Automatic annotation (TrEMBL):
Span list, region Disordered: 51-97
Stated name of the protein: IS66 family transposase
Protein source organism: Thermochromatium tepidum ATCC 43061
Residue ranges constituting the Transposase IS66 central domain according to the UniProt record: 169-444
Span of domain Transposase IS66 zinc-finger binding: 110-153
Domain DUF6444: 4-94
Classification via NCBIfam families: transpos_IS66
Amino acid sequence: MERLPDLAGLTHAEKDALIHALWDWVTALRQEVVRLTAEVTRLQGEVAHLRGQMAKNSRNSSIPSSAEGLKKTKSMRKQGSRPPGGQPGHSGSTLKQVAQPDHVVDHPLPEVCDVCGESLTGQATTEIRQVFDLPPVTMEVTEHRIHALRCTCGKLHRSEFPPEVTAPVQYGPGVKAQAVYLTQHHMLPVARTANVLADLYGVPISTGTVQAMIGEASERLAPTVARIADAVAQADVAGADESGFRVAGKLNWLHTAVTDTLTWLGLHAKRGKAAFEDFGLLYRLKGTLVHDGWASYRELTCTHALCNAHHLRELTFVHEECGQAWAKRMIDLLVSAHHETVAAHGQPLTALRIQAIRTHYEAILAEAAAANPEKPASGRRGRTAQSVPFNLYRRLRDHADDVLRFTTDPRVPFSNNLAEQAIRMPKVKHKIAGCFRTTEGAQAFCIIRSYLATLQKQHFDLFQSLIQVFKGNTPQPNFSG
C-alpha cells in the first residue's frame, strides 16, 4: 500500500492540494461503493429469480410433470388421502363367470380306477373354469347387387343401391369407426392405426385412406359440435383454458370450454381476444367462467371464478422457496374451505360460515401485505417489477370474490381441472405426432375430440356411436348439461 508523505515538511499550499486529492479519492471510492452496492443488489435479485425458476416444479407451479424429465415428481395430495386400489363407490371390472358360456369343453373321467381297476360308478362332482378370449376376426365382405329388366312395354326397371354404398369397392362403417376411434380417442398415429387394422383384421388400408375417414367423421360431426358450443355458452358454470399447439410448424393455440357434461375444443392462431371473438362462445357466456386469471378472460363480461389449484401450487412455492409462513396458512384455509363445500353435498354454506372464511382470508392477506411491501416506482417506463410473493398476494387481494366463489356458489368448482383435463389428451396426441401437419387435420381433431369427450362424459359407447355416425345416424348427446 502506498504510504502517505511526511506532512511536516509540506507547505500550506501543498497540504491543501493533498487534502483536495484525498477528498476526490474518497468521493470516487464512495461512488464506486454505491455502484457496486447497486450491482450486488441487482445480482442478488437475479440469483434469487434464477433459484426460484430452478426450484419450480409441477407441485409448486404450472409446469407439467412431463417437463420434469426423469426427476421424481411430488404430489400435492397428502399421503393416505387416497390409498392404492379401487376407491369407495368404484364398480370395478373383475372377471366373473357367466351362466351361459358360448362353448363347453367336457373333460371326462376314466372308466376304471387306475389303482384297483374297479369301474368308477356313482355321481361325480363337477368343477368349472371359464376362459374368456377373442374369437378369430376376419374381414367380412358384403356384396350388393342391383338388377335391371326392361318391360315388354319398353320401360326399363332398375333396383337401387343403398345410399351409403357409393363405390364399386369401399370400406364399411365398422372399419371407418375403428380408424377414427384409434386415432382420435386413443391417440394412435395414423400409420400405426393402419398397421393395427392390417395386423388384427387383415384390412389392407393406407394412411391416406385413414386420413380421409377422419375428414369424413369431422364433416359429419361439425353440426353436433356447433350445438355443443351453443350449449356450453348457455351453461350456468363453465371452465375455459388454452395451451400452445404446433400446427404445420407454427405455434397455434388449442382452446377449450367445458361443463360437467360437455366438452368443446377449438384451434386458433391467436391466444386471447382475437380467438375469443372469432369463436364467439365465451362472449355469449352469461354464467360463471372458471379460469386461471389470465388477463384476456378478465375482459369478458360474465361472472368470474379463479382456479384454486393454481393458487395452491403458487402458495406452495412462496412457502417452501421464499420462506413465508402466511402462504401455508392460506393453503390450509383454502383446502379446509374446499372440504367443507364437498361435505355440504351441493348445498350452500351458511352466511355465518362464509363470513368466517372471508375474515380469516383477509387476516392472512394482512400478514402477506406486511411481509411483502410494494416496491416504489423506479421511474422507468412500464410497471415496476414486483416479487413473486407480492404478485400472488395482490391477485388474492384484488380478486378475493373470485378466489372464494366456490364458497358462495355451490355450483362453482374449487379448481379448473375439468378444462385442464380436456386439453391433457390432445397434448398427448400432439406429443405423439410432434405436431399436426395441416390446419385442416388439427381442426378435424378438435371437432371429433369434442364429440367423443362429450359422449364419454355422458357414458355413451364411443365405438358404437362412431359406427352410427358413419351410417348417417349420429347419436346426439344431452345438450342441457
